[in-house]
């Protein structure tokens, strides 16, 4: 089968790739390492170190507290940049703030408080842990029912399962646009419409979607969303998260963590909390400026590429992983554990193998291919169209095949570690 | 009066200052600018730019996701460093995480949930806005009573006022160890003892205390605390905050934001939230690593100086401000608006003047002295013993006197701005 898709064809795809030049906009020191974990932590944009150094030396070191009139707008300014370049949202609908978990808590709590007598929360049973945990806490504290929607580990949530669970007792539905494990991509407009029919609000987790697939928050009728900026957006490790609240909803919602950054006329320091008009009311405390700063050079590259082109290339990179898995890896016990239809798949592809944990370790240490493991038996491969070449995917799959032929993972430890 | 304390005496104090050499451990590009706002944003440690650049290029750029096994411990590791060098707490009692506002919310909510039928929260009426706002939100959501303790704008909260308000209905008392406006320093051990007598829990806000005065959380019997790291700790703009939960309390408390970083065996990604043992249960989401990283070089300097020596110098710097205000500025309508007893004052000194806003602006733009304004009529001067010299204080007061003699602020705009 090796000759079915020879390496030179991957090289030709790279030669024709309209995004090929953008790879130089990232730091790629070690050309032999194949990095397929852009869905966990995106690469370092080449402009970022100097940008941060300038901020640290000038903005902090020289200007000191006099920089705050600029910095104080960053949560909002970066939110507007994200809205325009990655989220299909309008100005004044997105802020960058806190972590995804904290933002999920704020928006879920706000939505539940505004939900009248409705007492049910729906969540994908296979959704990312923090989403489920945050909702468990909120449901328990308020005596609400948290219903886990049955979800297929490979194919993700089916719309008919959601429809069957939607009734007029549902206050809130929390779903990932792209599933963290399978990469299954939901039809956001269809979900929003189905929820709207019964008067429920959908809160989207966009962590694995933003920067990988077009997210059209306004056009899809989305009301609430959160997401992180350190995966396909390349904002750096633990970069602050974002939240989106549709303009029409903002004045009706009040979030639970009433911090001074969400206060109207913050520096009047008035006696009573009075939420700021607009999306600023969803801010809380002083934001980590160094981590925020790294978003600007990252968004510059994203804006130049455009999400549509990123998606077009991402589909093809995913197709290549699926085709080479079928051709090369099936005999070795691998199976594609993501939707096979590229329209139903986000930026990453999961492979099933009973030894996935050992394999992901052997792949990194012996074959210099960084993907990652997800419970219970999934190997995730997350090419990032801004810097992953077709030939990188070809080589990674070739190295994986080589490992498989030698069952090279057999002596690798298989115990779970605290970080996998 | 000018001759009562001539400038050469300030120079002599600097010559005898055991911390004098540490000034070189900070970036001080513009020697003519006198920076007395270390209580808002501490200066840039000289080692920080290279430290961050290495983290960015190597930790992120080269090692990528493979750095996470190191990074994932940082919230706890940095918490332990803070515990040892600045907080008088034991290992495993402090984590660095989120913002002060979010941490205050988490710990206040956890304490209220564990408070049985008690229905009253006490807070200093003059405490920092975010503290009051967060508590208003919690009280409102739970139908509790939030009582504002009367507090003197200059002298801070009096212990007898607190004692009078403490009864067995009090669940939680939130107080700043050092008041953000007046600089008034509370006797933490006395407050903790008084609260313990009626079975109430005290949650300390240490933002203006940590790194300025010795904080002995264990010895003073403190149970809960939060604080920021960007003032006297020099962690950088918006650097992540810390929280402290006394070891004996940890297993009894459960915080409301159930994120995956607070989960036992985080990467098993289990179905149900099961809080981690110990202080880790108060973590929430993925932390901003770039902002966390800046804490290490900052804590290196702090550890070398030692808080006791910082406090000793800080007292004397404060005494100099008080003495020169009395001598030079009283005729021009200034008044010391902080406790005059240095044992009852933290690291900064507030001056009262009806034109404080205009004066703080004139001071920065015309005299190159950066202090800050706080409502309604306070000019805050915050020397930082690690890098502020006695002669800096002398020169700043001299420049302020010069402005006052000319009433140089009369044509400066006096409208509040969004950032002051």
TrEMBL record, chains A, B:
GO terms for molecular function: kynureninase activity; pyridoxal phosphate binding. It holds the Pfam family KYNU_C. One of its GO terms (cellular component) is cytoplasm. The keyword Ubl conjugation does not apply. Gene3D superfamilies: Aspartate Aminotransferase, domain 1, Type I PLP-dependent aspartate aminotransferase-like (Major domain). Pyridoxal 5'-phosphate binds at residues 100-101, 128-131, 205, 208, 230, 260, 286. It catalyses: 3-hydroxy-L-kynurenine + H2O = 3-hydroxyanthranilate + L-alanine + H(+); L-kynurenine + H2O = anthranilate + L-alanine + H(+). InterPro entries: Kynureninase, PyrdxlP-dep_Trfase, PyrdxlP-dep_Trfase_major, PyrdxlP-dep_Trfase_small. The modification N6-(pyridoxal phosphate)lysine is found at residue 231. It comes from the Bacteria. GO terms for biological process: anthranilate metabolic process; L-kynurenine catabolic process; L-tryptophan catabolic process to kynurenine; NAD+ biosynthetic process; quinolinate biosynthetic process. Pathway: Cofactor biosynthesis; NAD(+) biosynthesis; quinolinate from L-kynurenine: step 2/3; Amino-acid degradation; L-kynurenine degradation; L-alanine and anthranilate from L-kynurenine: step 1/1. Its EC number is 3.7.1.3. The keyword Hydrolase applies. Its cofactor is pyridoxal 5'-phosphate. Keywords: Hydrolase, Pyridine nucleotide biosynthesis, Pyridoxal phosphate. Belongs to the kynureninase family. Homodimer. Catalyzes the cleavage of L-kynurenine (L-Kyn) and L-3-hydroxykynurenine (L-3OHKyn) into anthranilic acid (AA) and 3-hydroxyanthranilic acid (3-OHAA), respectively. This is Kynureninase. The lineage of its organism: Bacteria, Bacillati, Actinomycetota, Actinomycetes, Micromonosporales. The gene is kynU.
């Amino acid at each position: 089968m090796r000759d079915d898709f020879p390496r030179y064809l991957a090289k030709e795809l790279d030669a024709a790739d309209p995004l090929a030049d953008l790879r130089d906009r990232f730091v790629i020191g070690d050309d032999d390492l194949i990095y397929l974990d852009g869905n966990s932590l995106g690469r370092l944009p080449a402009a970022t170190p100097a940008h941060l150094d300038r901020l640290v030396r000038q903005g902090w070191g020289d200007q000191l507290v006099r920089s705050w009139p600029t910095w104080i707008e960053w949560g909002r300014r970066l939110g507007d940049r994200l809205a325009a370049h990655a989220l299909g949202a309008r100005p004044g609908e997105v802020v960058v703030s806190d972590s995804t978990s904290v933002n999920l808590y704020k928006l879920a709590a706000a939505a539940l408080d505004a939900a009248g007598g409705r007492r049910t929360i729906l969540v994908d049973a296979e959704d990312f842990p923090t989403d489920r945990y945050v909702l468990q806490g909120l449901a328990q504290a308020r005596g609400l029912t948290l219903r886990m929607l049955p979800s297929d580990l490979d194919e993700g949530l089916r719309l008919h399962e959601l429809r069957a669970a939607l009734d007029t007792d549902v206050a809130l539905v929390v779903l990932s646009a792209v599933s963290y494990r399978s990469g299954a991509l939901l039809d956001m407009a269809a979900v929003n419409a189905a929820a709207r029919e019964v008067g429920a609000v959908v809160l989207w987790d966009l962590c694995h979607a933003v920067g990988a697939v077009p997210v059209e928050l306004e056009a899809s009728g989305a009301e609430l969303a959160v997401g992180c900026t350190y995966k396909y957006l390349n904002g750096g490790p633990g970069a602050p998260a974002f939240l989106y609240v549709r303009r029409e909803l903002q004045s009706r919602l009040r979030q639970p963590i009433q911090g001074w950054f969400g206060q109207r006329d913050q520096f009047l320091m008035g006696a009573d909390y009075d939420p700021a008009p607009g999306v600023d009311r969803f801010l809380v405390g002083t934001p980590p400026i160094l981590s925020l700063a790294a978003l600007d050079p990252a968004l510059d590259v994203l804006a130049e590429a455009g999400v549509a082109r990123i998606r077009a290339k991402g589909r093809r990179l995913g197709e290549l992983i699926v085709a080479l898995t079928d051709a090369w890896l099936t005999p070795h016990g691998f199976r594609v554990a993501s939707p096979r239809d590229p329209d139903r798949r986000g930026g990453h592809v999961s492979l099933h193998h009973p030894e996935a944990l050992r394999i992901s370790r052997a792949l990194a240490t012996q074959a210099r291919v960084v993907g990652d493991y997800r419970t219970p038996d999934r190997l995730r491969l997350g090419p990032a169209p801004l810097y992953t070449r077709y030939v990188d995917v070809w080589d990674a799959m070739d190295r994986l095949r080589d490992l498989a032929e030698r069952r090279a993972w057999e002596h690798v430890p298989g115990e779970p570690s605290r970080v996998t």
